[in-house]
Design goal:
Largest sheet: 8 strands, mixed
CATH class of the largest domain: Alpha Beta
Number of domains: 2
CATH architecture of the largest domain: 2-Layer Sandwich
CATH topology of the largest domain: Nucleotidyltransferase, domain 5
Radius of gyration: 23 Å
Strand content: 25-35%
Number of strands: 20
Shape: elongated
Length: 411
């Protein structure tokens, strides 16, 4: 299949909403942060080609830290997976310059030759494996975005690194641009044996290279979530277990999480997430909810703020009754979830990729050296909202058991 630009077709077709969002975004700065196999380089190249075909006469570059690494990596991806041969008017292998039939050009180069880059007038700049770069190199490229009559964008693709990296500070802490995150598990084109091998990774390697996380955030809201114990492989939920759902109402669609209660322990098991691209409408949402929970007894559906009663009524009219949380104070809800995590009462299937990504990115804002009670980019965290709406409706009670703290939930 192909993705159409204004007048031509390119080979690339997004495989998930993260790739699609990155490709179509008009933000001045963009970051695609992904794990192994998440399709980082291919969407970077597709972004460059789209800007080149949408705006004839455009001139941009795709760079890596070292130019010598381009031929077997980014260039190979561009020619074999993204750009059809009939769009290419000329390719100067020595210069790394690709000229397209509409007058646009893309320069493939390295950041190890700053003198060559200093005189460029660019419409766009893309950086592959940006974790290898320094902030000065990013700023240098931003200073070259001055080609007239075209939009100016700088964008990058990278594996996650430590939270001390300038990219993390720029996008995740300071919000100076849009970011998209994808895990290995979100690329349906990967063979199953590759996925199985990736899931054998442990610790920081799994966090970064399978789940695509910038692990170790300062101010992480749910730092007490024990992922070693509570992030678990999928199993079939017994039909006798009761099911609950939490809902977050966004401007264009509803996100939802589904938990099953183990009657023997009172533990919660997050087994399904619903995070659509948007625009489905209440009827479509409810049909999806019913499909997810088919064969189970759903006893609790909770979600939304106090001011979203009309939205709840809309779901009730379609046969999915959602109640308002008992306590609508956001910090109270967060503390209740933190309490359940402290007791290791919440288990999450490790293929709930949206949930996992949000759980390890959900952080309090800093004001100088002080931590506030505000959340960085809180509107993006639909799963965290759905979770706190639901789980704050339960009251955990500690029960002494040999060797550990346990709890049961009272409705």
């Amino acid at each position: 299949m192909t993705t159409k630009t204004k007048e031509v077709e390119v080979r690339f077709n997004p495989v998930n909403k993260q790739q699609r969002g990155f490709l179509l975004s008009k933000a001045d700065r963009l970051l695609f942060s992904g794990a192994f196999g998440a399709g980082k380089s291919v969407v970077l190249c597709a972004k460059a080609l789209k800007l080149s075909t949408d705006y004839p006469g455009n001139f941009g570059l795709i760079a890596r830290k070292v130019r010598a690494t381009l031929p077997q990596t980014t260039l190979k991806t561009f020619f074999e997976q993204v750009c059809p041969p009939h769009l290419i008017a000329d390719y100067n292998k020595t210069e790394g310059l690709v000229k397209l039939i509409n007058g646009s050009s893309i320069l493939f180069t390295g950041l190890d030759d700053p003198l060559k880059l200093g005189s460029l007038n660019l419409g766009f700049a893309g950086i592959d494996e940006a974790i290898e770069t320094q902030e000065e190199e990013w700023k240098m490229l931003e200073g070259r975005l001055r080609l007239p009559n075209v939009p100016h964008q700088i964008f990058a693709a990278t594996n996650p690194g430590p939270p001390s990296h300038y990219l993390y500070r720029m996008f995740f802490q300071e919000g100076r641009g849009e970011y998209y995150q994808a895990s290995t598990l979100e690329n349906p084109l990967l063979p199953q044996d590759y996925r199985d091998r990736m899931m054998e990774f442990e610790g920081i390697y799994r966090d970064r290279y399978v789940y695509g996380l910038w692990k170790g955030l300062e101010g992480l809201v749910y730092s007490n979530f024990n992922d070693k114990q509570c992030l678990i492989p999928r199993f079939e939920i017994p039909k006798a277990w009761l099911v609950d759902s939490g809902h977050d109402f966004g401007p264009s669609s509803s996100a939802a999480l589904f938990y099953a209660e183990n009657p023997g322990t009172g533990d919660f098991y997050g087994f399904a997430e619903y995070v659509p691209d948007g625009g489905q409408g209440i009827y479509a949402d409810v049909q999806a909810f019913k499909s997810i929970t088919e064969g189970y007894n759903v006893i609790k559906r909770v979600g939304g703020s106090h001011g979203e009663e009309l939205t709840r009524q809309g779901y009730t009219a379609q046969g999915w009754h959602i109640t308002e949380p008992k306590n609508t104070d956001r910090l109270y809800q967060i503390k209740k979830v933190q309490g359940l995590h402290t007791l290791n009462k919440v288990y999450i299937f490790n293929d709930l990729t949206n949930y996992v990504r949000e759980k390890f990115s959900f952080a309090f804002k800093k004001d100088g050296n002080e931590t506030t009670d505000l959340i960085v980019n809180e509107a993006r965290f639909h799963c965290m909202a759905a979770e706190r709406y639901l789980l704050s409706d339960f009251t955990p009670e500690t029960i002494a058991k040999p060797g550990q703290q346990k709890a049961v939930s009272n409705h």
